[in-house]
Design goal:
With 234 residues, the chain is an alpha/beta fold. It has one domain: Class I glutamine amidotransferase (GATase) domain (Rossmann fold). The chain has six helices and eleven strands. The protein is globular.
């Protein structure tokens, strides 16, 4: 049975809809919560079969409001890349992956945006990445993948929405399993919140089914790329 380590940067943002897909395949996962009093990122030896880095709400990595464990997580992610350990990075996590892979991060304001991403490579995620899929972002700063990275999809502004720095190291600038309740809880968890949230909340409510439908092939492709399959689950 596969086991994954998940780093959570806020209490509000978690795997969301992705949890059911992992559990349905018999893939175990454990959340590390460095933001709690006794919490800390996992050690390399305890990561298991993969590292998942989640988003951070208002936390970023470009110097305006860096997540407190940024240096430790960059070092852990770089070590996973060197060891060939699968890395799935989402939101702030995608920024950490870019930095660990010798890319960079561009400072941007805290935003809550709902839109779509378009696939740029037909064989992305072993051909399972949809040609067009919901792209939900809640956070600040924007990863700039290293020059050798493959951009698998772009957002409405032509920025990397999904990128690959190794066959089993993939970053999503949006959360593919985002849930409405996560956005609501992020607004309540922090004093700092994006402005003009009303339209994003309205659009997100209408996209619920699209998000669920797109996640089915996305998770199929991710599980294959990360080698998280076993003989009993597709």
């Amino acid at each position: 049975m596969k086991y994954l380590s998940v780093i959570q940067h806020t209490s509000a943002e978690y795997l969301g809809l992705m949890e059911d897909h992992l559990e349905g395949r018999g893939i175990r996962f454990n959340y590390s919560r460095p933001f709690t009093e006794d919490g800390k990122p996992p050690e390399l030896a305890t990561v298991g079969d993969g590292l998942i880095l989640l988003g951070g709400g208002p936390w970023g990595s470009a110097g305006v409001r860096d997540v407190p464990t940024l240096k430790t997580e960059i070092a852990l992610t770089r070590a996973c890349l060197m060891m060939g350990t699968p890395v799935l990075a989402i939101g702030l996590g995608a920024q950490i992956l870019a930095l660990a892979a010798d890319g960079s991060v561009k400072a941007t304001a805290l935003e809550f945006r709902t839109g779509y991403a378009k696939r740029t490579l037909a064989n992305a995620l072993n051909g399972f990445l949809p040609e067009k899929f919901p792209h939900i972002t809640y956070g600040r700063d924007q990863p700039v993948p290293p020059s050798y990275a493959k951009v698998l999809a772009e957002d409405d502004h032509g920025h990397a929405a999904v990128f690959e720095v190794a066959d089993n190291a993939i970053g999503f600038t949006g959360h593919p399993g985002f849930k409405l309740a996560m956005a609501e809880d992020l607004v309540m968890e922090f004093e700092e919140a994006p402005t003009d949230n009303a339209s994003a909340f309205t659009t997100l409510r209408a996209m619920k089914t699209e998000i669920e439908d797109a996640l089915v092939p996305i998770m199929t492709g991710l599980v294959q790329k990360m080698n998280w399959m076993d003989n009993n689950h597709p």
